[in-house]
User: Fold these one by one.
Assistant:
Number 1:
Amino acid sequence: MTFRVGVIGGGQLARMMVPPAIELGIDIRVLAETEGMSAAIAATAVGDYTDLGTVRAFARDVDVITFDHEHVPQAVLRALVEEGVAVHPGPDALQFAQDKLRMRERLGELGIPMPDWARIETPAELDAFIADHGGEAVVKTARGGYDGKGVRVVSSAAQVEEWFFALDEDGRGGALLAEEKVEFSRELAQLVARRPSGDVTLWPVVESVQRDGVCAEVFAPAPRSAGRVAEMAARIGTTIAEELGVTGVLAVELFETTDERLLVNELAMRPHNTGHWTIDGSTTSQFEQHLRAVLDLPFGATGHVEPWSVMVNILGGPADGDLDAPVVAASADQPTAKIHLYGKEARPGRKIGHITVSGEELDEVVFQARAAAAFFQD
Amino acid sequence: MTFRVGVIGGGQLARMMVPPAIELGIDIRVLAETEGMSAAIAATAVGDYTDLGTVRAFARDVDVITFDHEHVPQAVLRALVEEGVAVHPGPDALQFAQDKLRMRERLGELGIPMPDWARIETPAELDAFIADHGGEAVVKTARGGYDGKGVRVVSSAAQVEEWFFALDEDGRGGALLAEEKVEFSRELAQLVARRPSGDVTLWPVVESVQRDGVCAEVFAPAPRSAGRVAEMAARIGTTIAEELGVTGVLAVELFETTDERLLVNELAMRPHNTGHWTIDGSTTSQFEQHLRAVLDLPFGATGHVEPWSVMVNILGGPADGDLDAPVVAASADQPTAKIHLYGKEARPGRKIGHITVSGEELDEVVFQARAAAAFFQD
């Protein structure tokens, strides 16, 4: 008589689903890739998520399967669905998060604003696209990229030569995605949750600051977004969630252009770094809402409890790997800072935690969050 | 290099320490009394907390031992301390929570305001106390009582006859505690946390409403408490925490009398039902602060994030034992309600969860919290 959720993947997103599961009385189980991962406290199984037998056995004792990441193969997902397992988000939606070319094609059909793009099969096609777009293009592998991996800004096809070799070797008729390099004034993100029964709920649109292709800071709500920008972002997020049949949390990363348009950059069909502020800053966090969504429970309220929340990622961590001293120092210096650590070892560039501060004055909140996070970085 | 906390006792208080431990990156381990308890997700051991060998083995792999309850015998606690184990709160402080007569004696020495009381060894002494206090007294067993158990309002010693028999059989020179029945206008509670290094932090004083000796509702902060009442409560709480050497969270239950005095009713040296609102309503919850305190980490901020929070206990639960349907109904009806379930089966009178709502208007917040909780009760 208890709701049971099975999460595939043992990373920090699975880890952060555990606290709201405990509070709501949900029995949460994690299929982790290896021992000792971020979500180890709830890891009831360790195994290969590309192996149908492993995933099928894990799915046997839960009400619904959901994900820490988007890498479970379509064949595995479709086999589960055929066997009657509830999978949210399902394979029909996930294919658009797994394949950026399919995503661009589908968003195009829906008339969603996005950068100019093209399917690229040969270096000549890429060079032509570059020539048509001011001598530069953003090239992406269709699959497997995240946090800036599989993304390159190039001025010549030769700069992604090995990606073309890889396509040839793969031999499955794959292609690269080329996009215009958008002149944006800032990046925004719209977080949405949708239930299988159809309800959609949204948090306020946020501003995200990226460094080296990785989310560094998030301001919630996005400054100067009230009104038109917030409405556009909400409409885009709702349309994508509904038309792609997303269930669970969806994050839509957006460019705000210098001429005040919003263009869709990337999609993620899971809780997302740009939504971590909701743990402390919203009545219902993205992690609780994701659990509610995949179980088809009514949504919690998504208002922000203080006027501003700012999240700063802890990237890499201290060189000596000691996270205890920074916890002490950051706590003493910034008692309003909410410290979140992922149980991961410090390593250059790695997301090992984040800090959120909420309050009434944006300047103060930004200062406090950055000051606390600075203790975790050399 | 990770902070490790061992919690003795697997009830809901241990359970609610798990989410902040996960967020802060603390390795939390629980010694549970049996399998399948509230804190099962963190239960790394199951055993008898009155057995020194069991507790010693559990303590070996943690930095500090703390508690879900106050029932670990002094002999066990003192043996651990002698062996160099960090125990918070320590036995010197815990004795006052374990023995109400010692507590009254010590508070008397400190000049803390409290009801008239007496140490009672014979029925004749109790009848004399009753006669001196308007024909009524509150009689308590010195040890082992909680949630109204071990407490009786009597007009004659004959009404606690079996407690005197038990004292005689025990043969250790025990005694009962008699207290005047205070004419109070309401009950308040002051939540405090203190670190081994001496820092003390407080949350706003709250009003608690008891039914049948059990906490039913909490209003935070206590209405009409700003100024004098809040200052008195804070002074009493701070004095007790410091003078009794409490480490961790301390809850001081208070009577506010019709003539506007505050009298100490009970003490609890652990997170407390009157502090559950802090999970959703304060920047730092009592559970996170307790972990910080026992690890001697700097405290988090204790401000309330919205003007009002109201907590309503879920007592007993539905007769059919099904908690899924109430979760659905309460969520649909009251999306601002934060639902907390303890993983316990419904049983008459049992605390199986609580609801907290926070917001700007007290009337609305009370209504929403009660409406949500009502779905869990027949």
Note: The mean pLDDT of chain B is 95.
Number 2:
Amino acid sequence: MTTPEYAHELRNLLLNGEGEIRRDLCASLPEATLAEILTDQPPQSVWGVLSAMQPWKRAAVFGYFNLDFQVYLTENIDKDELADLLTVMSADERVDLFKRLPDEAKESVFPLLAKAEREDIRKLSSYEESMAGSVMTSEYVTLTPDLSVTEALEKLRRQWPGKETIYYAYVIGDDRRLLGFVSLRKLILARPTAHVGDIMKAEVVYIRAVDPREKAAELIAKYDLIALPVVNGGAALVGIITHDDALDVVTEEATEDMLRMASTDAEEYENTSILQSIRLRCPWLTLNLCTAMLSSFTVSRFQDTISQYVILAALMPVIAGLGGNAGTQTLAVTVRGIALGMIPVGKGRKVIMREACVGLLNGVIVGSIVGIIAYFGFHKPWIGLIMLLAMVCNLVIAGLIGSAIPLALKMLKLDPALGSSIFITAATDVSGFFVFLSLATLMMPFLH
Amino acid sequence: MTTPEYAHELRNLLLNGEGEIRRDLCASLPEATLAEILTDQPPQSVWGVLSAMQPWKRAAVFGYFNLDFQVYLTENIDKDELADLLTVMSADERVDLFKRLPDEAKESVFPLLAKAEREDIRKLSSYEESMAGSVMTSEYVTLTPDLSVTEALEKLRRQWPGKETIYYAYVIGDDRRLLGFVSLRKLILARPTAHVGDIMKAEVVYIRAVDPREKAAELIAKYDLIALPVVNGGAALVGIITHDDALDVVTEEATEDMLRMASTDAEEYENTSILQSIRLRCPWLTLNLCTAMLSSFTVSRFQDTISQYVILAALMPVIAGLGGNAGTQTLAVTVRGIALGMIPVGKGRKVIMREACVGLLNGVIVGSIVGIIAYFGFHKPWIGLIMLLAMVCNLVIAGLIGSAIPLALKMLKLDPALGSSIFITAATDVSGFFVFLSLATLMMPFLH
């Protein structure tokens, strides 16, 4: 395995080495390593190295580049070379690249592809990015139930080059209806004269192409699959999703959740320019400005109280800070719980009540600490009591809102993580300040 | 595939059905589905169904239960039955369960296991949970380079039952030194008389057992592997990590990051009692209390200014809210960037400068909006100017601290996500209030 310390020498040899050593390196290094070394090098250098590879290896290395770099590289080759490259690429990587090509490149290269590749691109590009269909590939092996084991193994052998996985073969009937699957392991262990229909497993886990792509990853994880068959509305097999794509989906979804919860977006990793980051984050900050004005307005209603007892202004950050933190805790647990499928439909109310309970008890504990500190700090028992009561209310509200917002977004079929932290901070700030300052106003006669 | 609507009927048939239909269901349903139906049912019912299965299927279904439920179920069987179950379970699931058994169960069942299983448990249980060694399994096929392809296929066929994956076989030399690997695909396509040593791939991606388990998942994702070999300090093969375990690791690590960033822990999903949640969250809230007191102290230094111009207290939540939000955005981008390996060693300074720039520009935009609103809202140009300046300072600090804290934690070999949100809110609150109220004090003469 290539260790990072050698990366520099390897890059140097690959980019500037003699023809022979370059060819040797291209032949012996794994595709992912070659792609890593070549990423973000000047296009001429990259094509120089890629041209020293066999076509299938070139396509595999190319497929490891991120899409932006792939598109950028295609600007430096003519349409015939591009057509050759697209033809050899794996079906799912091909359609991803094709979708991102500029319109004129699409139009000029499409007629140069063979009919099979053209139809494949049409079929695979018809699904939205969030659907299972968008991550599937059309490279899998199919068998029919009437084949003997010997014939099936022969067919597998013939179809091997270029198939993403051959460890599962799918058994189809009329109109490509999915009937079952058979593993290579089973085929090799079976009697040569047995029929595929007899040894296949008919209880097959599948997904529909329009289902969410997270569901595909969930099924692959749950059933420990190497590949998951994808069917259309008519139960016909249209593709498979492989275990490595499931890994990518899980990683991407986790990133998306985490960044959306923090009010920005996973797009941050696609384009790292400062202006892009601002474009993604600024609208949320502006929204936050509006919600912060609500808090501001709440506090401004109590100017008389504060002007009489300015120490209240100094205690406000404690109320806001703990409410925000408790809300974020609840939010993270709920958002992740939804993503992991741990909150069943209809159990939302129970989750909200549970979080309110946690908020109540944490509020009593933390509120007591802060109450005691306030009591001894200011020698005013009433301040301690106000802090305790405000803290309890605030943490209960943090528990209620922190769990209710993502659950409500989920019910509305929106992303449960979407900007939730802003709404929760707004809710805890407004309610925390209101309770704290209302109590202070009521108890004002006793404060002096 | 089983759809949720049938779950109720299926559970009923499984738990209360006649012997024959129960056996049929046990034989035909996938293991994951059976485990899902049986989870959290009373132990007697679960064992009633499990006993209707073949031993290998019983062990597989049992392995799908979560560990708490597994341990709970073992309390209802005697030590001989437990030993039988452990013997048939897959090696990685066996050691996970064994580690969680009460000490007396461990002591009584250990002598009943065969020598091979005892040594296996000893070997696999010697790694910490965060290490690659803790997720590996000892069930893989090894070959030696001198075997012919025919002999190799024969050996694979013999070793098949009970091996987690047979699609890759590992080639070892003296002292189990890892020499290379060969895929089943390659073996089947090769000339029967060729030697394993000639057709094996010597450029093999591997991991050391003491490396972090995230790294194993990274390698499996990067090289699209079905399994990754694990070696010890002496480069000897000690296990493999399979693609489905990598998927679990990625999911767990993402959960851990998200919850730690929000100041709680992934443990929240292991034990869902309210008291456990409080135990995990309350210490962080108490820490937050201490940091909030810093903000409180900062504000209290400016009591004179606030008492003269109470509207400042009403504007404080805007400063704190936006600083906190911008800090969370930076934090999420940085923590996830580190987790995805997108921030190379030594590039930390560049990331921090970039985030400060984003903060500066966002500060100018949002600060201008808030300045204009404040100007028209209060008809005091100075308030608008103070808000603009404070906002710019605060968002620059949010960018600096939001990226510097996780990077520093990473350098200290701690989890970059650990409670970061508390420290960042503290930093933005203290600095935001300080700048805002200092400016207000300086400009006080012009405010009236």
Note: Chain B has three domains: 4-127, 141-246, 294-447.
